[in-house]
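User: Predict the complex with uridine-5'-diphosphate.
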Amino acid sequence: CKITRPPPTPSPLRFSKFFQANLRILVTGGAGFIGSHLVDKLMENEKNEVIVADNYFTGSKDNLKKWIGHPRFELIRHDVTEPLLVEVDQIYHLACPASPIFYKYNPVKTIKTNVMGTMNMLGLAKRVGARILLTSTSEVYGDPLEHPQTEEYWGNVNPIGVRSCYDEGKRVAETLMFDYHRQHGIEIRIARIFNTYGPRMNIDDGRVVSNFIAQALRGEPLTVQKPGTQTRSFCYVSDMVNGLIKLMEGPSTGPINIGNPGEFTMLELAENVKELINPEIELKMVENTPDDPRQRKPNITKAKEILGWEPKVTLREGLPLMEEDFRQRLAIPKKGAI
Ligand code: NAD
Ligand code: UDP
Ligand code: UDP
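Assistant: Here is the predicted structure with uridine-5'-diphosphate placed in the model:
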């Protein structure tokens, strides 16, 4: 690394032989949907100090408001495409827009975030000797020709399409992780996250579960993108966060699929949301976007065997929890509640 600076001054707490040192954890993208739930879970452990670095592109301080001012918490406005100097033991590297609307908005920035951002976090991990976990994605499998997807599958990805800034970006990020591991001995962990949903998703973030719930609550038709038979597997956010922490603490570099194998077509999802929120609502078939994967379902054998992890919350249990959060934020009370 070209940055030269004196070594960090050891804090009395961190190096005292009388106290067990706190674990200092950096969460990039910690103001986002999954990141803020991860921060909540990490902060529950009194031995953890958490630093969030986020540029607020798709995240918000609001997601972290309960921790602002807490002595074990620090929030930094920072873009990961720029170098970052902090002293930490672990890095959860989540910073990257995840919704197609946002990652396609400025594709060059998305690929910079994936490539330069991951390189900076690896440079940081190398300098301070931290363990680093990357939140990669099921999108690395592209429009998969193998179903369900195992970690051994190399994927079927268009390198020049409109989604490539995200899925090829994450593929390069995975390559960088393994090259720093092999070349510099960095301790790495790679999670391949499958579609995740839950409270605090951006209401207008364009992903399917948030779209359907917001539309149903507003009394608008549910926009099912054609043909509607494409499938996804939806993981509730608390399960996801538990999986990420188990992976960080566990023995394996990964990549490991973290997701819920329950598979639904978009038409089935729409029917579920309709039944839950408003049976009167209509479905509207609309045009799809290019390169939309036709099917997606994780094989989670590795997560079960290596991490002892599997999801607990079914879609039927998770959707009402998200409905409640969206009702509060949209100020739409439940029928009969007032
Ligand atoms: P999100 O958009 O809610 O959160 C991403 C966060 O990263 C936001 O707070 C955003 O402001 C921040 N960010 C973006 N670019 C940044 C930059 N250059 N510098 C600093 N901060 C930046 O998305 P999410 O759903 O919470 O996703 C978190 C991670 O999980 C992402 O890496 C995403 O690729 C991965 N992932 C998510 C899903 C999913 O279904 N939610 C699926 C697969 C992978
Ligand atoms: N980096 C960083 N924080 C650090 C150390 C490095 O952001 O604490 C950045 C650094 O600016 C560089 C990148 O990480 O762009 C990769 O660092 P590395 O040491 O691997 O490469 P070099 O600096 O030698 O090119
Ligand atoms: N989708 C849909 N209606 C919407 C938004 C998305 O039918 O309003 C479909 C989309 O075509 C895709 C699936 O839902 O097949 C999941 O899309 P999302 O953007 O949530 O996630 P990803 O494509 O990244 O899996």
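Residues 28-29, 31-35, 54-59, 79-81, 94-98, 113, 117, 135, 137, 193, 195-196 surround nicotinamide-adenine-dinucleotide (ligand 1) (CB under 6 Å).
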